[in-house]
Design a protein that fits this description.
Elements: E1 3-7, H1 9-18, H2 25-34, E2 39-43, H3 53-62, E3 67-71, H4 75-84, E4 88-91, H5 116-125, E5 129-134, H6 138-147, E6 151-155, H7 157-161, H8 164-183, E7 187-191, H9 199-203, E8 208-213, H10 215-224, H11 226-236
């Protein structure tokens, strides 16, 4: 059974457009869990453009399933994670100028964050499952294993953004990446750009354990409510 994590960042995006108190991502997290979500995901960005410290603290207190904290590889975020004790932490790239995360974390190139092995070991020492958000490339997966990550989350943006004729090839890359990761002892998650049209195929890839989906579900929730939006996605995944 593939788990479904609901990213509530964009509930906070709507709130921050007016710098007011609603809609509340904490309430969204509770509603998503009640609808059947297996996990709540939230990204506390350095610039605090959506999720705020208060949000992530309260989400940690109210979540009954699991909390997945998306975070940059910085000393500030390490300190927050150690205090918060999320069930898992996904290390993601972060740029101030981007609208949303534009690609996977580069673990092998010149832009690879320093001190990653130490960060991974520190978080694991606090009983936090640590995930690398990376593109479906063998060299990235191999480095994630060397650095001691527990899991990878495959960045599915190329698959999600490809025209239909090209999606089969992108899906095959994800299948191959999943097989490589499993051989190396890594658990496999996936996310980014997944919606009600392209998630069924991803959820059918053997050994992918978890999908994290945010924008599409929050967008549908504007019209039908978050409970139905979550249940509709669970239905597409064959969960109900």
């Amino acid at each position: 059974m593939v788990r479904l994590g609901i990213n509530v960042d964009h509930v906070a995006t709507i709130r921050e457009a007016r710098k007011t108190y609603e809609p509340d991502p904490v309430s969204a997290a509770v509603a998503a869990e009640m609808a059947g979500a297996d996990q709540i995901t939230a990204h506390l960005r350095e610039d605090r453009r959506h999720i705020q410290n208060r949000d992530i603290r309260l989400i940690r207190e109210v979540v009954k399933t699991a909390l997945n904290l998306e975070m940059a590889a910085t000393a500030e975020m390490q300190e927050i994670a150690l205090a918060l004790k999320p069930d898992s932490a996904c290390i993601v790239p972060e740029k101030r100028e981007e609208v949303t995360t534009e690609g996977g974390l580069d673990l092998v190139g010149a832009s690879a964050p320093g001190g990653l092995a130490e960060l991974v070991n520190t978080l694991k020492g606090a009983d936090i499952l640590v995930t690398a958000f990376i593109d479906p490339a063998a060299e990235q997966i191999q480095q994630a294993a060397r650095l001691g990550f527990d899991a990878i989350e495959i960045h599915t943006g190329s698959y999600a953004n490809s025209p239909a004729p090209a999606q089969a090839a992108e899906l095959e890359k994800i299948r191959e990446a999943t097989e490589t990761a499993v051989r190396l002892g890594l658990r496999v998650h996936a996310g980014h750009g997944l919606n009600y049209h392209n998630t069924a195929a991803i959820s059918g890839v053997p050994r992918i354990e978890e999908l994290n989906i945010g924008h599409a579900i929050i967008a549908r929730a504007v019209f039908v409510g978050i409970e139905r939006a979550v249940r509709d996605m669970l239905k597409i995944m064959g969960r109900i």
